[in-house]
Amino acid sequence: MNINDYRRAMDKVAPDDTLKERIMNQKKKTYRPARRVLTVALAAALTAACLLTAAFAASPEFRTAVLSFLHMEEREQVPNQGGATSQPDISHAEIGELVRAQYIKMDDYYGLSGDLLHDLTWNDDRTELLDYKFWEIQDNELIPVQVDMNTSHVDIMFRDLHYQGEFYWFVRNDQLYFFSGDHRTWDEAGECPWDWNLSWIPGRTDAVFLNLSIGTQMEYTEYPFLYHLDTGEVEDILAGTGADKLEYAYGYDWSDNMRRAIILTGNRLDDQRTWFCDLDTGTLTPVDELTDIEIYTAAFADNDTLILYSTGRDEEWMLRDVSFYAYDIPTGQMTKTLDKAPYYRDQDENPSGVKTYGSRCVHISEDGQVQVVNLKTGVRTLLGGFTFQKGDSFMLNPAGDKLLYFSTDSESDGLGISQIGVADLDKGVFFAFDREGYENLHESGVGWSDDNTVSINAHTPDRETQYLLLYTF
Fold it and tell me: For the chain, which has fewer Cβ within 10 Å, the N-terminal or C-terminal residue?
């Protein structure tokens, strides 16, 4: 699943925080920073890390790696000049010699395909791509790039409905990029639409998922086919498993080898269910029947391991706590990796507890101490020297090895990101910097563009000028 799946689910129903996380918790150029790093501050941080490591090593029940927080002294000066521009204008900055920032100023919205900026021109119905332009970002210049654009056709009958239309795609640097317009069709009464969309298959450039949907809101349901780009063949990859008989299926998460899937179903908040589908055995099993423990939902840690979520609720049926188990699919053996951790709620005055990200979670204590927990192994990584506060957020990158951190200003128009940084879980580095001038822009979105780059979408208060802010860590 990806962000498009989440948006479609939001059109279907307004779920509670747990359901949002179930949808968002699925998997989704390299700039090598740090020629030198604020020597005195880093030395102090490393000293603190050594002391903390020694303290935890003395406790066999709490073996935890320590990743020390470095608050960079240099502040980012966010650009906010409006004014007309005939084509995208770009500038860049280096922040603390650790982060490369690129600021793209536009008079209209331009998209990003990997390291290419694009401008797409659709017909009035937004069903046909009439023209396209691509630019490569090189220092302070945008260099026009020609791509080998292909056109593929969708023409399939499913559940007595005809799905059709075109989409466009190209491959560059072993990455697939695709674009599709509006293909929604309504019944004669104008009450029940059917539609299709595409989603990526990580690591593949020969195929995409073609997701066929019908209905909106509580009546929404979706079913995936495999679309082979070289032949145009549409394959029912779930054939024979019984998945096509599920009602109100709206989310699909796949193992890396695509031989197993987690499927989310339900048309009411109290009617959510998670299913485990095994293509090799042709079986479809509710995850709460995999063990004798009541299981709420699941995520993949790898091809052979599920992370099972078991939740507790209060008198008002609100999530109270969650326990996690690593479930070995071939043997059925299960290991508890986190027990009855309080569930995180944004609306609390001083929020604490766990925020889940598939096979990892962030555990925030009541005093603001933060640990990243590998839910397969139970290994914890403490963000030493960092204190979580209300308004702080985290977001895992597609590879699962970096954690985006950002803090928002509740008084700002838009997100108002006042501080941003990254914790590299493999390299043991966590740093962040303050931002100045963000209050002069309306920041509408933030997220990972790839495993190393974070993007922020913004515009001036008059909406005349758009900005795409890119940070390579």
Answer: C
The pTM for the full model equals 0.81
The SS3 call for residue 186 is: strand
Cα 427 to Cα 431: distance, rounded to the nearest angstrom: 12
Ordered DSSP codes for 348-416 = SSS--EEEEETTEEEEE-TT--EEEEETTT--EEEEET----TTEEEEE-TTSSEEEEEEE-TTSSB--
- CA angle centred on 209, ends 205 and 212, rounded to 5°: 155
Answer whether 452's CB lies under 8 Å from 429's CB: no
With a CB cutoff of 8 Å and minimum separation 6, the contacts of 82 are 460, 462, 464, 465
329 within 8 A of 287, measured Cβ to Cβ: no
Q: Write out the H or E segment, with its range, that includes residue 12.
A: helix 3-12
What the block records as the tokens of 453 is 């780059």
Report which DSSP code applies to 75: P
Q: Distance between CA 409 and CA 411 in Å, rounded?
A: 5
In tens, the pLDDT along 340-385 reads: 999 998 888 889 999 999 899 999 999 999 999 999 999 999 999 9
* Residues listed for the chain: 473
Q: Cα–Cα distance between 153 and 162 in angstroms, integer?
A: 13
Give the span between the Cα atoms of 5 and 319, in whole angstroms: 23
Would you list the DSSP string of 281-296?
A: TTEEEEGGGSSSS---
pLDDT digits (tens, 9 = 90+) for 164-196: 999 999 999 999 999 999 999 988 888 889 999
Q: Report the candidate in 457, 458, 460, 455 with the shortest Cα–Cα distance to residue 472.
A: 455
